[in-house]
Amino acid sequence: MSNFFDGVNSYSDSYSFFDSYMGTGSAGGSSSSMLSSSIMDLQMIKSGSYKKALKAYYAKNPVKKSEDSKESIKESGKADSAANLSTMKSASQKLNESVAKLQKTDYSKVESPEDMLEDVKSLVSSYNSTVNAAKNLNSYSILQTTLWMTGNVSKSSGILGKMGISINEDNTLSLDEDKFKKAQMSTIKSAFSGGVSFASRLSQKATSLSNQCANQIAVNTGKKTYTSSGTIKY
Question: For the residues 141-147, what does the mean pLDDT come to?
Fold first, then answer.
């Protein structure tokens, strides 16, 4: 998939791409207005496997009418295998578990960042597994949520950098263990605790991804589907 997004070098380029493939430009008319905010959100990441995967899908399944584009979005996940969806579901669940452990930490009892190193390594590893699992999927909703997740991580690059966590070109994370050990505990606590923290936002996206995968598996196997909160949709 490495060449799917060659030539898309700016947010305006990527917006033009989604306009042309999904009928959300001026030619799309008012019938495509419900898609506008979603397409706008897809500009958040300049490059990465998710936009490449999304382009790959629509390059093979181009649409010209807005009503067709909405149907294509709905049907996009049916091409995903149960194995790939299960891998993504498992990865996002493990990511949520890693985040939860950091959120539940009693920071008043943590003596140094080194005491948290293994938990942070687990977070980075499970995040990267989630990122890589998304490369093999076609589902528009799952790809979009992954984009939102990586967008939130990108917005937190400042505080992550202070802890030795950097964002790679493919949207995965790298951890500089020596730098993390020298980080301020106040920075670590700010990132991983509280209702509006980096960890809180990441948990929300991981939960959504897990539910979306479960929902798509159910759809593909003809079973009852579920809402994003996990309740049965009759």
Answer: 93
